């Protein structure tokens, strides 16, 4: 009897190698498909509109990438930009996170050296989808370290489609998060890999990946605080091991050095409170390591003596050091934290002290519906994933749970940080779904085995293989029928993978039968229903993600569309205005507008602006805000002192575009009033209400913003009905004395005005003559026709 | 307290005896570590005397010393035969990793030194 068994054993071993190879190939093919899925779902905006850069911040990154591709890296590193923040300028080399632009620049250079003539704009537009595919693969690797291949594939498929990540990485959204999320997940993967294997090689790679993350995004402080938190957690729960030391200590040293290399961070890497946690845990780790080492050297009694000695001395030293540190930190008004970090830790901080941070809509706390919009089904799969991570608890799974908990807190503070929550939610949902499929399909297999109770005697090794096969995701014969109904390709592939395994598994059922008596086995109908329902859940998720990608998150806010009975109506007013500026003004003319439009103006119109989206100088922005809130003469004085030639305002009253300057006006008043006390917000409100109709205050009706927006507005429909505010405006017929209108776009969305030059002042007897000539010049200015209408 | 001083002396003696039993290659790594930390302390004292003006040079000097000390500890952990987690890691592989990590560390140091 030994002969056939050994031959079947040998055949079984060869068969298992073939099965493993086939499984590996299938896994790789699935990953390729997931990458293609992640790339293609982000192409809706290119298909529906055109291959154009979206929003505001990406235009700045695009301009910087253009400069890099034209002038090379040394010029880029030392670039001082004088086309923005006039007259201050901006040191681009030292204030920009270079990761994104260097990545796109490298891709462009590589592709062009292979003689594929892609323009910089194309590379910029498609960088985000490419890196989202990379991020899915990184999620697969990270989840594989935590729970296994099946969970990894599931998590990767979920991340490829999650709407929160899509919203910041569609084709055209050329912003830091596009590469930063990939760097984040990859750094976490390398950390967990080092923790699991204890290899210094992966620790080096981890530090280099952390360097890439620091180059890419200001959110790197999340990594350098989360990893120390996890190390502390491991120490406190008694899971200290030498692998933990290898995973953490080199990262701190190398990571701090590499972070200090990036000009934006510089010495902040050792001096700001954001990094102190890493140093503190570094010291604690060394103390713990020393304690374990000495414990290994001494006998228990002597160890106790040593402990009492060390504790008494050590506590004194500790107190001294902590006292010094606390004194140092408390001496600075912000306790060493930067404004942005403080606004995260204390959600009410920004609204009290930094109105600019509070005014950005992305920085508001999210509402409950936005959770369901952004991570949909994952919102209730995540708790199941947390439970599954605890059985059994390993270093990697505790890390994932900690990542999720901190990400949930920060996403509750700022809606923009839902993006950091998305990978954590995907990983945990992948784990949950994979475990669920595991249990259900195992139950089905067991129930099927009970039905086919008279199968032949098992070979020993195939039972071992099937127990390893059950750790992969789907393992059921019934799934063959379901696979036609399932709408997600990745779920099909794992089921096909196991159809072949099932043929050999059937023989081993009786042997496994005894092993599985202890495992959870559900009745057949419940398992089948469970699998069906889970697949339907997945279907809902996919449908929602595709809808969100197509309808909600693919709009390039530079071009607006609306559907009417006549078909699609396109509003291309922004580009019309910037093109007019670039063709009809001198190269050195300065344009003033609210800071939202600064990046777009410099990138597309190629004119110098006063303030832009970087918002690094609050006083300069407050100057522009004050000018917008003042009467015409005072505003003219302010703008003239800044050498401004043209003023640009955005007005949505004719077409109903709600994000126009009149709706943003109160923020201009608040920011201006924060620096110049003569601007008081109550002056612009009637009984606490913000209105621009007949009930508005005279200060509001006389301020520059009102006049520039509503100049000649009454000529459109005779009554001056503002479609955004929903009422008729207060002051309808007025003339501009210090500005002249030079351009209004087709739908009146962007209006450009020129500062009138100062009149020649002649004192004394010629005053009467002068007043006559003044009226004639204003009449001439008022009748000046708009050449584009 | 004579008992306390006796205990302390006994402690130090037993520590010394246990340490003398460690193999020579580990003792060499420990010596290297002590040298690195001593160099770091000398640099801190020097900075205290002359001030920290090129701060990047000070930072890169200190961090290179502490970095090599940390990497030496990692090498010691991986090469130590008493460590059961690393018993199937060949010491040549551990040393190669150590060299690679040091290479990266010193590349960064040279860049940051100014």
TrEMBL record, chain A:
This is dolichyl-diphosphooligosaccharide--protein glycotransferase. Belongs to the STT3 family. It is found in: Endoplasmic reticulum membrane. Residues 588-647 form the STT3/PglB/AglB core domain. The chain crosses the membrane at residues 21-41, 91-111, 123-142, 148-166, 178-204, 210-233, 245-270, 276-294, 306-330, 371-391, 398-415, 421-440, 519-543. Keywords: Endoplasmic reticulum, Glycoprotein, Glycosyltransferase, Magnesium, Manganese, Membrane, Metal-binding, Transferase, Transmembrane, Transmembrane helix. Residues 460-508, 764-789 are annotated as: Disordered. One of its GO terms (molecular function) is dolichyl-diphosphooligosaccharide-protein glycotransferase activity.
TrEMBL record, chain B:
It is a multi-pass membrane protein. Keywords: Apoptosis, Endoplasmic reticulum, Membrane, Transmembrane, Transmembrane helix. InterPro entries: DAD/Ost2 (IPR003038). Its main location: endoplasmic reticulum. It is found in: Endoplasmic reticulum membrane. The chain crosses the membrane at residues 31-49, 55-75, 95-113. It comes from the Eukaryota. Pathway: Protein modification; protein glycosylation. GO terms for biological process: protein N-linked glycosylation. GO terms for cellular component: oligosaccharyltransferase complex. Belongs to the DAD/OST2 family. Subunit of the oligosaccharyl transferase (OST) complex that catalyzes the initial transfer of a defined glycan (Glc(3)Man(9)GlcNAc(2) in eukaryotes) from the lipid carrier dolichol-pyrophosphate to an asparagine residue within an Asn-X-Ser/Thr consensus motif in nascent polypeptide chains, the first step in protein N-glycosylation. N-glycosylation occurs cotranslationally and the complex associates with the Sec61 complex at the channel-forming translocon complex that mediates protein translocation across the endoplasmic reticulum (ER). All subunits are required for a maximal enzyme activity. Component of the oligosaccharyltransferase (OST) complex. This is Dolichyl-diphosphooligosaccharide--protein glycosyltransferase subunit DAD1.
